[in-house]
Amino acid sequence: MPGQAPGVRIDGLTVVYKTPAGELPAVRDVSLRLEPGTITGIVGESGSGKSTLALSLLNAVQPPGRIAAGSVDIDGLGDVVGLRGEELRKARGRHVGYVFQAAQNSLNPLKTVGKQVLDLGRSHGVEDLRGLVRDAKELLGRMGLDGARVLDSHQHELSGGMRQRVGIMLALVLNAHLVVLDEPTTALDMITQANILKIVREVHAERGLTTLVITHDIGVVAEVADRLAVMYGGRLVEQGPTRQVLGDPRHPYTKGLIRAIPRLTGDISEARALPGRPPTLATVPERGCVFRDRCELRMDVCETDDPAATAHGDRIVACHAVKVREHA
Q: Which residues pair with 315 in a beta bridge?
């Protein structure tokens, strides 16, 4: 669907990893909508399943992982879970651009950035390779870089912020209209972070993209996202418009994440870390609420029953305690 931001519908997605204890879910029964032309943020602690969910949009979950159930339907592509071989390869880059966590890991240290742009073009059958390099140079220039110099550089000659911008360029240069950014500001200083987020907003608006931002930093999604999804233990526990979720969080995990943010002004002691630790693949409970061991609102039903994702106006929340309060 060239020139048009695609919508994405993730339904009942479950991704499992094979372990000595059997197949364990890293993502379990996740449903999420990315509306055309919007920026959606997924936030959660490390190990919550965010990156695994994002890789599912490329059907790129690597063994010992596999998509065990569900669908990822992208306008213009169909269900990517069913794509294989050449069809899948063409979808990556052309339809879905992906900026990997730690951008330097996705660059070839033996080739200049320009040669990697040419390789990308050749692998996708681009006939006008000069035009592709011209587009790459222009994109880099719009991101505040000397495009010619960067294209002639190897990754070790670029700073972290420059490499992150190169990653964004590579995700966009084939004119993808669905872009996934996995931890786009990790390990960057505050000034570079702010610049990257400004670039994400500008490029998103100018190119008419549908954008998914994966992060552990609520400040990042507050800065750029229209909608926010909160992930914990492989489940989506709360979704909704970003301002609503941050201004009036419903799920106790969302409240805990916001409470843990350090404040620049006021009483520093008001910031309180969440008690306990997030679950690993091996410790996620097979039934009941995944957050119950750290939850101050824990009830008996949380031990045995998965809370259903229930709509509350524009919000979707998976929490037994929220349902009880709504009906009280």
A: 312
CA distance 85 to 102: 27
Is-contact 235 28, C-beta < 8 A?
A: yes
- In order, the DSSP letters of 179-239 are EEEESTTTT--HHHHHHHHHHHHHHHHHHT-EEEEEES-HHHHHHH-SEEEEEETTEEEEE
Collapsing DSSP to helix, strand or coil, 241 comes out as strand
User: What tens digit of pLDDT does each residue of 101-119 get?
Assistant: 776 667 899 999 999 999 9
User: Does 149 score more than 70 pLDDT?
Assistant: yes
Contacts of 136 (CB under 8 A, 6+ apart): 113, 114, 117, 147, 151, 169, 173
Q: What is the mean pLDDT of residues 282-301?
A: 93
120 pLDDT above the threshold of 60: yes
Tokens of 113: 């950035």
Tokens 């794509």 locate to 83
Q: How far apart are CA 243 and CA 85, in angstroms?
A: 41
**pLDDT tens digits for range 151-190:** 999 999 999 889 989 999 999 999 999 999 999 888 788 8
Q: Taking CA 297 as the corner, what is the angle to CA 294 and CA 299, rounded to the nearest 5 degrees?
A: 100
Query: What is the C-alpha to C-alpha distance for residues 178 and 188, in angstroms, rounded to an integer?
Result: 24
| CA nearest to 9, candidates 75, 65, 92 | 75
For residue 301, the SS3 value is: helix
How far apart (Å, rounded) are the C-alpha atoms in residues 93 and 171?
Answer: 6
pLDDT of residue 1: 39
Q: Classify residue 281 by its DSSP letter.
A: T
Place of tokens 């592509």: 77
Cβ contact 229:242 at 8 Å: no
Residue 42 burial class via C-beta count within 10 angstroms: exposed 0-12, middle 13-18, buried 19 and up: buried
Work out the mean pLDDT of the chain and round it to a whole number: 91
